[in-house]
Specification:
Elements: E1 6-11, H1 22-28, E2 34-37, H2 42-54, H3 62-78, E3 81-84, H4 91-104, E4 111-115, H5 123-126, E5 132-137, H6 142-149, E6 154-157, H7 164-174, H8 181-194, E7 219-224, E8 229-233, H9 243-251, E9 258-259, E10 265-267, E11 272-277, E12 280-284, E13 287-289, E14 294-314, H10 318-332, E15 341-347, E16 361-370, H11 373-376, H12 378-385, E17 396-397, E18 405-416, E19 422-425, E20 431-434, E21 472-476, E22 481-488, E23 491-498, H13 501-510, H14 513-519, E24 528-533, E25 538-543, H15 564-570, E26 572-576
Parallel strand pairs: 1-2, 2-3, 3-6, 4-6
Antiparallel strand pairs: 1-7, 4-19, 5-14, 7-8, 8-12, 9-10, 10-13, 11-12, 14-16, 14-17, 14-18, 15-16, 19-20, 21-26, 22-23, 23-25, 24-25
Helix pairs in contact: 1-3, 3-4, 6-7, 7-8
Length: 580
C-alpha cells in the first residue's frame, strides 16, 4: 500500500441504515487512502439471518451494494481502497455481486473477501446450542491485510471486530506482525473511534450545543507507523473533533480497561489524547498486550413472540387507574391464555393542570412475551379491547393491539481461536488461511475500582486526591460531566467523564457504584462494576443484565441503553459551587 508515513483512513458508515450519501461525501471531501464502513451490530446479524432464511443468496447489507452502484467508479478513479464488513452472513455472495455490478459499469476492480466467521454449519461439531439463526466469530485484522497486500481495491468481510476494518489496512501499510502489540493496540483504539461514524465528530454528544451538529461530517484517522493517530474530518464538514467528542466515543460500549480483541488486547487505561489544533485530536501512548486464546462468538436465535399494548391514563388518579387496568386485564386472561411474561411500566408523562390533553396524560405500557404467538396476539388484544367501556374513565389506547411479532435473543460464547478457520480469499481466488495469534495472554478483566476512599486498605492506584471541601449547589450532574452509554448483549455500558482535573477529582470520589444505584433506581438490584480511566478523566460502569436478553428482546423502554447516560446526567445531586 505504498510507503508514505501516514495512512489516512475515513469512515462512511456506523451502522446498517447510516447516512447513504456518506460514501460519496467522504470520497469527494478530501484525500483518503482507505474508506471503511461498519454495517454490523448484534441486531443487524439477526436481521440478516432472517433475510437468509427467506433467500439463501441474501444475508449481506444491500445498502452497500447500492452505494457502490453510485460510487465504485469514483473510488477507483481516486485510488481509495474500500474495506467494509457489509458481507454480514454472506461475504462471498456480496463480493460476487460487486464484481457483477462492476462489469455492468465497465469497471474491473480487484475484489477480495474474508470468511470463516460463520460457524453455523459447524454448530454440532463446536458444541454450540441448537435453534440458532446465526453463529459468528469475531475475526481479527490479518485476513483483511492479506487481501490488501494482494492488491485488492475492495475487501468485503463478514463478522470481524469493528476496529479490524482500520487495523487491517494499517498492518498492510506498515508491515506490522503479531508481536507489534503497541502499534496494533493504537490502531485498535483509532478503529474504535472511527467505527461509529459521526459519534466521533459531535453526533450523539452530551455537550452538543457547543458545536454546529446539524450535519456532522464523518471521521478520519491519520495513522502513523507507531500506531499513534490523529482523528480529524474533511475540511468544511459539520460537527467537531475535540478531546471531548473522542473521549465520548472511546467510552462507548467499552466496559473493561483491558479491551480484548483477536489480534491484541488494548489497554484503554493507557490512552492519552491531545488537542493538536481545530478538529485534530492526537491519540498516543496506547499500550498493547497479547490477545486472549479465545474468540468471541455472537449467537442469535429467536426467543419467542412479543406484543405491546399502551394504555393512556389522563388527568387525575393516574396510579389508581393503572392499578385498575392491571387487575382487570389479569382477571380477563384465563390461565391457559396468559402469556409467560407480562411486564407493566408506567411512564408519568402527565403534568398537573396541563394546557393540553396530551401533556395531562401518562402512559401505561404492557409488554407480553411467550413462545406461543397466539398468547401474545389475538387473546391479549381481545382482553385489552374488551375493557374499552368497562375500564377506567377516559380509557383509550395509543394503537389497536396487533398480532405480535417474533423477538430475537443475543448471547456470546467463547471458542479456542484455533478452532476457527479465518480465511482470506484473494482477488485471484487463492485462499490464504490466517493463523491465530502465536502468543496469547490472560482474558481476565482488570480489577474493578470499588474503593473511592484513599484511606481504605486497598485504594485504587488510579484514584486522584480527594476534592477540597466547599459549598455545594443542588444541580443536574450533566452540568459538570458528560456521558455516553450503549449495549453489549444484555449488559449496559455507561461511561462518564469530567472536563477538567478539578471535575475529575470530584467525579472519581463521588460517582461510586452505590451512588449510581441511587441515581438510577433501575440498576439497584443488578451487578455493577466500575473502572477508572484517569488519562481520560473518566469512570466506566458495566451494568450486568439491565437489557435482559439483548436489544432484539426489547426488554426495556430504551433497549440499547442509548439514553442511559443522558438520564444519569439529568439527575440532581450536590455539586461543588467551584465546579459550576
Amino acid at each position: 500500500m505504498g510507503s508514505r508515513s501516514v495512512l489516512r483512513i475515513g469512515n462512511a458508515s456506523g451502522f446498517y441504515g447510516d447516512r447513504f450519501s456518506a460514501v460519496r461525501e467522504m470520497l469527494t471531501g478530501g484525500p483518503l487512502d482507505v474508506l471503511t464502513g461498519d454495517y454490523l451490530a448484534e441486531l443487524t446479524m439477526l436481521i440478516l439471518a432472517r433475510d437468509r432464511l427467506k433467500d439463501p443468496s441474501l444475508g449481506y447489507a444491500r445498502t452497500f451494494l447500492r452505494q457502490m452502484e453510485e460510487c465504485l467508479g469514483l473510488a477507483l478513479e481516486r485510488g481509495v481502497r474500500i474495506v467494509v464488513n457489509a458481507g454480514g452472513l454472506n461475504p462471498a455472495r456480496l463480493a460476487d455481486a460487486i464484481r457483477e455490478l462492476a462489469r455492468s459499469q465497465g469497471l474491473s476492480p480487484a475484489v477480495a473477501h474474508v470468511e470463516g466467521d460463520d460457524l453455523l454449519p459447524r454448530r454440532a461439531e463446536l458444541g454450540l446450542p441448537e435453534g440458532l439463526l446465526a453463529a459468528n466469530a469475531y475475526l481479527g485484522a490479518f485476513g483483511i491485510a492479506e487481501c490488501l497486500a494482494a492488491g485488492a481495491d475492495l475487501v468485503v468481510t463478514g463478522r470481524v471486530t469493528d476496529a479490524a476494518l482500520v487495523v487491517g489496512p494499517a498492518i498492510a501499510r506498515f508491515g506490522w506482525g503479531p508481536g507489534d502489540l503497541d502499534a496494533l493496540a493504537g490502531a485498535v483504539v483509532a478503529g474504535h473511534v472511527l467505527e461509529c461514524g459521526a459519534q466521533a465528530t459531535g453526533g450523539n454528544y452530551a455537550f452538543f450545543r457547543e458545536h454546529d451538529v446539524t450535519r456532522p461530517g464523518f471521521p478520519i484517522a491519520e495513522l502513523s507507523a507507531d500506531g499513534s493517530s490523529v482523528i480529524t474530518k474533511h475540511p468544511g464538514t459539520g460537527g467537531a473533533v475535540t478531546t471531548g467528542t473522542v473521549t465520548a466515543q472511546l467510552l462507548y460500549e467499552t466496559g473493561d480497561a483491558r479491551y480484548l480483541g483477536p489480534d491484541v488486547t488494548a489497554r484503554l487505561d493507557t490512552v492519552r489524547l491531545t488537542q493538536e489544533g481545530p478538529d485534530r485530536v492526537r491519540i498516543h501512548g496506547v499500550r498493547g498486550e497479547e490477545p486472549p486464546p479465545t474468540l468471541k462468538v455472537g449467537l442469535n436465535r429467536l426467543g419467542g413472540h412479543r406484543n405491546e399494548v399502551v394504555f393512556v391514563l389522563t388527568g387525575l388518579d393516574v396510579e389508581a387507574k393503572a392499578a385498575l387496568v392491571r387487575q382487570q386485564l389479569t382477571d380477563a386472561l384465563a390461565p391457559r391464555d396468559r402469556p409467560a411474561e407480562l411486564r407493566w411500566t408506567l411512564a408519568r408523562t402527565d403534568h398537573p393542570d396541563a394546557a393540553t390533553e396530551e401533556s395531562a396524560s401518562a402512559l401505561l405500557r404492557l409488554t407480553a412475551r411467550d413462545r406461543d404467538p397466539a398468547k401474545v396476539g389475538r387473546e391479549l388484544g381481545k382482553a385489552a379491547v374488551e375493557l374499552g367501556l368497562a375500564g377506567y374513565p377516559g380509557f383509550h389506547l395509543t394503537a389497536p393491539p396487533g398480532a405480535g411479532s417474533p423477538y430475537g435473543v443475543f448471547t456470546a460464547a467463547y471458542l479456542d481461536a484455533k478452532t476457527v478457520e479465518h480465511t482470506a480469499v484473494l482477488p485471484d481466488g487463492r485462499r490464504i488461511v490466517v493463523p491465530p495469534a502465536p502468543v496469547t495472554g490472560p482474558a481476565e478483566p482488570l480489577p474493578a475500582s470499588p474503593h473511592p476512599d484513599p484511606a481504605s486498605p486497598h485504594p485504587d492506584p488510579a484514584l486522584p486526591a480527594p476534592p477540597e471541601a466547599g459549598p455545594t449547589v443542588r444541580a443536574p450532574l450533566g452540568r459538570v460531566v458528560g456521558a455516553r452509554s450503549g449495549d453489549k448483549g444484555g449488559d449496559a455500558n455507561l461511561g462518564v467523564w469530567a472536563r477538567d482535573p478539578a471535575g475529575w477529582r470530584w467525579l472519581a470520589h463521588t460517582l461510586t457504584v452505590e451512588r449510581l444505584r441511587e441515581l438510577l433506581p433501575e440498576t439497584a438490584e443488578l451487578p455493577i462494576t466500575r473502572q477508572l480511566l484517569p488519562h481520560l478523566r473518566a469512570v466506566n460502569f458495566t451494568i450486568t443484565g439491565l437489557l435482559g436478553e439483548g436489544v432484539a428482546a426489547q426488554h426495556r423502554f430504551d433497549p440499547q441503553a442509548k439514553a442511559l447516560g443522558e438520564w444519569l446526567r439529568s439527575r440532581h445531586l450536590d455539586i461543588p459551587e467551584a465546579l459550576l
